[in-house]
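Good morning C.,

I know you're traveling, so I'll keep this short. The sequence:
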Amino acid sequence: MAEAESKSLDTAGHDLDTTTFQSESAMSAKMMELNAKERIVSAKAEIELAKAEIRLAQLQIQKARTIAARSKSRSPISSQSSPHSSNSHEYSLSIPEDISKKTAHEPAAKSLPTTQARTSKENRDQVNRVQRYFRIAFIRSADQSVSRSNVKRGWWCAHFDGDYVARQMELHPDKPPLLLVAGKDDTEICELPLKETGLTRKKAAEILPLEFEQVWMANGGREYLLKAISSGQAKPTYATAMLPRDAQSASVKT
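The tokens, ready to paste straight into the viewer:
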């Protein structure tokens, strides 16, 4: 009798160990899956950031080439020794004869900037502005009376392109994220200049660009911005300038 009870207890213990092991294995597999998904999102964000850095480098190269081209197109200046002093020089512009003989009713044609040149200048202006990123926690007014251990915090994130917000996110614990971009969402986006927000004085409020981009990408921010660009509602900012041209073209076609 005692031996039968002992075997029964051993069998029950073995079944319990097996169930526990299976449960732990399932939990471990789930954690591995979540970690893999997080790494995928992080990798995608890093790829997009790398593309943005490549685009920035291309714009800087284009800027350098433009400056070099302008310096080459300047009229040559010829220096001549002055008869009054050996240390002083007179400078005269060498003007081509055909231009000097033009009459008043035959003005030289003005060179008009092309659309591509204007776009490149706008992109350079956007890229040269200072870019800063911020994240602060917030508590809904309805939850302010709840104890700290039970309160649900949200996050307010913003990308400042120069003095004003280019992209903004509100991440709530119990509802979908709110994404805003300059131009399309001007009635909802923060309209204060950076100095007036007080964000620069808040401890640990400023974050790295990669931290912002990872959250922005994970919550569908890239697709949202592309839709705003394709509908013509997005204001030209650093964020729009950094998007690859092929992605913008594809969004317009769709």
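Safe travels,
E.
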